[in-house]
Each structure stands twice: as structure tokens, then as C-alpha cells.
Amino acid sequence: MASSTSRWWALGALVLSALVIGMDATVLNVALPTLAADLRATNGDLQWIVDAYMVPFAALMLPAGALGDRLGRRRVLLAGLVAFGIASVFATYANGTGALIAARALMGAGGAVIMPLATSILPVVFDPRERGRAIAVFTAAMALGLPLGPIVGGYLLDHFWWGSIFLVNIPVVVVAAVAAAVFVPESRDPAAPRTDLPGALLSVTGLAALVYGVIEAPARGWGDVRVLAGLAAGVVLLAALVRVEARVRRPMLDLGLFRDRVFVWGAAGATFVSLGMSGVLFVVPQHLQAVLGHDAFGTGVRVIPMVAGLMLGGLAGERLTARLGLRLVMPAGLVVLAAGFCLGATTSASSAYGFVAAWLTVIGAGVGLAMVPAMDGVLATLPEERSGSGSATLQTVRQIGAALGVAGLGSLLSGAYASGLPDGAPEAAGDSITAAVALGDATLLHAARDAFVAGMDLVLLVCGAASALAAVLVAVFLPRSTGRDGKTAESGHELTAAR
Known about the structure:
globular
């Protein structure tokens, strides 16, 4: 473990790494109209500017985690930060859509290295008594980056050129890299074998194909040939990955983790939370802009109550887990999350922002109360020498869950919205609520807002049902008396003593 002072400085480096990834996940959304005008980008170009980041981000985490175990987690984390910084420079000064798409792909690769390696360093630096608090701060930083994206992006677009939204990454990355180099201790698996090339190739191609199919489905339709081909190829390649890894002495993907009920149900709970978060971040910004009439900057500011709730829930979850154990606290967090979603599902087109802020705060509290204990419990099950590959497995599962959530919920919202429009509405209005606003027809806009809110309520209700189901499953299947050290006791509900 690091010294009492340096480990908190090390956490600062990891927090900055998470913050820049969180910001980059949302900052591009506010810039798409500007990119369309300045770069003369088509809708297809804009889709690829977004997807070029998401596909490598999901596909490269598994090999990145294994590489960190072998070469050194700090070293590989620094390489990810450098790649992300260089890609941000390229994106800043890109002079065409092709160059920007390439830069975004490199940023996604850098992010795929940063996320699992930053997570894997937490249990190396912090002992079980402090790990929950560190995870709460790390998770809050990641969440804080999400509304900061449109806040910072909106301000920069109002005052500078579009490339400035990527330029702002560079000072954050530089500070994070320097702090990591100075304060984060090096750690690796001394028995790590050479890179598992067959596993790496199968995981990268399988995850890339699966994620591509998932993110294209809402736009092209689930029956589109390219979507079906991507999904089928992903399933086949990942099935081959499981078969190959089962025969390798030291596989890149540790299948033994899936025999540990704490890992499985902790990861499942975290994935359900990620799905719910994805649903909120998909519908709420559209509601705040198209229904309540706020700009991108104002939208980012108005999402902050969710982050505040997450921080409070995370800190409470860390303390409650020490008293009650993971099996009680994580389902309780999922119940709070379900309650927030169900409250949100009662929103109407006339609801004021104060009501929206209230249920966003409850949702944030549920996220923190469930996610922090889940991450703490899962990380505690990982052998320290394999924390890189284990963390990568956890983050990959969460990312796939989030991608599936956005795709499924996006299709659900689109169907409900389109069915709520009046007969004879212009075809453009059926594409999105934003398109309906742009038409400027007051009567149509009123109907479109009602239709969108009805679709949003349906999405939130589904997220609430999924969270409630997750609470029941976790409460039933998570081992009894699961404590902060990831072990189970023979009897009783007390937390096992921290080391």
C-alpha cells in the first residue's frame, strides 16, 4: 500500500483520468450541429464521429487490462493517457471528417486503456478500510464529467471554435499523467505469461462487432442486414473466445471469476445501474432542451443534482457497507434507484424543473448507494496480481450493458414518440423531438412534447422495473454476510473485519 499522503495524491491522478473520460463521453453531443456546418459533415459522418470512439472503447478494455498485469499498470495507464492526449491534439486541428473520425478512434483506444487500469490500481493503493471511499470519489468524478461535458462544451462553442472542445482535454491529461507518474506505485503480475494473442484477437473483433451492431440498431432498425451481421458475428466470436480461453493455462479472460457469486452478482448489479444511468442520460438532456427549452449549457447545469445525489449516496453506501454488508446495502441502493425512476415516470409535459431535479437527485443517490458497494465488493474478489484483467472484465461487462441499454431504450423511446404524434404530422417530426422543434409549428410542437414525455416516462418505468428486478436477484443470490474484503462468513449479518 502507498503511504498515507501519497495514496490520496494517487487518487487525484485517477480521478482526473476518470473526469476527462466522463467529459469526453458527452461533450461531443453539443458540438454535432457545429461540426455538420463547419466540416460539411453528413448524418452518416456524424454517426461515425460518435461510433469511432465507442467501438474501440468497448473492444480494447480486455486486452488493455491483461497488458497492464504483464507490463505494469502505471506504465500502461500512462500510455493510455498519452494516447488520449495526442488524439485530442489531432482532433483539435482536424481539417476534415476523415481526420476527426481517426482521431476519435484513437481517443477511444486511449480511453479503453485508462478506465480498467485506473480501476485496477484502486485496490493496490487502498486497503479495504479506505477502498470504498476511494471508489465513491472515483465514481463521482466519472459522473461529474458527464454534465461537465455539455457545460464546458457549450461555453467553448459560444466563445471559440469547435476544436476547443478537444483542446480542453490536454491540460487535464498532462496533470493526470504527471501525478500518476509521481504518486501511483507500479504494480504487475510477476507470473503473467506472454500476451494471449488468440484471446486478444477474438475479444477485440467480437466486442467490436457486437457493439457496432448494438449502436447501429436504433438508427437502422433491428432487422437491418448490417445490424444482424454485427450482432451475429459478435456472438459467434465471443463464444469462440470463451471456448479458447477455457483451454489456456493463464487466459486473458479469467473465466473463474464467473464462478464467484460476489463477482457475478456485484457485476450484474453494477451493470443494471449503468443501464439505468444510460437511460437517464439519453432522455433527460432531450427533455431539458426540447420540452423545457434550455440550451446545452443550461442542460448540463441542470443535470448536476443527479451528481450531487450520487456523491451523497456513494459516501453513505461506503459507510453503510461497513456496518451492514454488501448483501443488504446494494439491493437497498437498487430499490432507491427504482423509486427514483418510478417518480420520474410520473413527469408530465407541464412539470417544472424543480420536480425533475427532485427525481434526478433520488436516482443519483440510488446510483451511488448501489454502485459504490458493488464496485468495492467486486474489486475485493480480484487477486491483486490480476486486478488489471479482472477490472477490465468488469468494465467491459458494464460497457456492453450500457450500450445495450441505450440501444433498447432508444428504440423504445422512438416507437412511443412516433406513435404519440398526430396523424398527418410531417415525416421530419417523427425523427426526433429536436426535429419537431425546428419546424416551428406551435400545434405540432405541443403534441410532440406530449409524445416525447410519454415516451420518456415509459423508458424511466422500464428502468425502474429493471432496477427492482436487479434488487431482488442480488438480494437472493449474493452470498450472505458479504463484507468489504469480498469474503463470506459462516453466519450472521456483520461485516467481516477489515484487514
